């Protein structure tokens, strides 16, 4: 997915504003199994996924807890760093060789001060991420593991083809054995 499509999915910008924003965005490639964002650090960069799959997780004593998967077209946005310039709480792990677009948060903040269209784009970005977080929270609190699996199957079937079952089980909040049982029932 190209950067124009990704930016427009967030919020359409006038061509001049989009051109200015794109001058700050560069493309970078990473091999799989790299952690591009580390918990406990103030992150300086936003990423947009051109190619690849990522997972967001929080390390725990016995095992990591995966709470989000991103794929082509998605934004990798460490919200605490983006909003408050504070250390973020999640790790972002590349599950495939990936091509990402990167944008420095400080440069984006400078544009917020000079271009109202880009400032509105940044607000829409934060709003969309908030809604995504709210949907994940509600799903985790009020749906069974089977319902969450069916939702994943319906909304992001490619995740099930491209992500290890252990990560999917962690995302659903269950063991791999329970996930196998659910899959057998469906």
Q: How does this structure look, described?
A:
The model has no long low-confidence stretch (mean pLDDT 96). The protein has 186 residues and is α+β, with helices and mostly antiparallel strands. Helix 4 packs across helix 5. It has a 4-stranded antiparallel beta sheet. A 4-stranded antiparallel beta sheet has the order 2-7-4-5. It is elongated. It is built from 9 helices and 8 strands. It has helices at residues 3-10, 15-22, 79-84, 105-114, 116-142, 145-155, 157-162, 165-172, 176-185, and strands at residues 25-30, 35-37, 45-51, 54-58, 65-70, 75-76, 91-94, 98-104.
Notable characteristics:
186 residues, alpha+beta, 4-stranded antiparallel beta sheet, 9 helices
| C-alpha Rg (nearest Å) | 17 Å
- The unreliable regions are none
* Fraction of residues in helix: 40-55%
- Helix and strand succession? HHEEEEEEHEEHHHHHH
Structural class: alpha+beta
| Mean pLDDT reading | 96
Q: What's a concise summary of this model?
A:
By secondary structure, this protein is an alpha+beta fold. Helix content is about 50%, strand content about 20%. The chain is built from 9 helices and 8 strands.
Q: What's the arrangement of secondary structure elements?
A:
Elements: H1 3-10, H2 15-22, E1 25-30, E2 35-37, E3 45-51, E4 54-58, E5 65-70, E6 75-76, H3 79-84, E7 91-94, E8 98-104, H4 105-114, H5 116-142, H6 145-155, H7 157-162, H8 165-172, H9 176-185
Antiparallel strand pairs: 1-8, 2-7, 3-6, 3-8, 4-5, 4-7
Helix pairs in contact: 4-5
């Amino acid at each position: 997915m190209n950067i124009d499509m990704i930016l427009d999915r967030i919020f359409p910008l006038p061509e001049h504003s989009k051109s200015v924003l794109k001058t700050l965005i560069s493309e970078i490639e990473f091999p799989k199994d790299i952690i591009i964002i580390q918990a406990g650090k103030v992150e300086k960069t936003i990423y947009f996924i051109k190619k690849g799959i990522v997972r967001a997780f929080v390390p725990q004593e016995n095992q990591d807890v995966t709470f989000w998967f991103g794929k082509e077209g998605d934004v990798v946005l460490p919200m605490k760093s983006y909003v408050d310039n504070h250390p973020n709480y999640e790790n972002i792990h590349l599950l495939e060789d990936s091509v990402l677009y990167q944008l420095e948060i400080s440069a984006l903040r400078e544009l917020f001060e000079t271009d109202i269209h880009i400032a509105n784009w940044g607000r829409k970005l934060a709003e969309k991420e908030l809604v995504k977080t709210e949907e994940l929270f509600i799903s985790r609190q009020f749906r069974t593991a089977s319902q969450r699996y069916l939702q994943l199957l319906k909304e992001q079937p490619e995740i099930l083809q491209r992500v290890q079952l252990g990560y999917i089980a962690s995302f659903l909040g269950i063991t791999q054995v329970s996930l196998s049982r659910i899959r057998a029932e469906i």
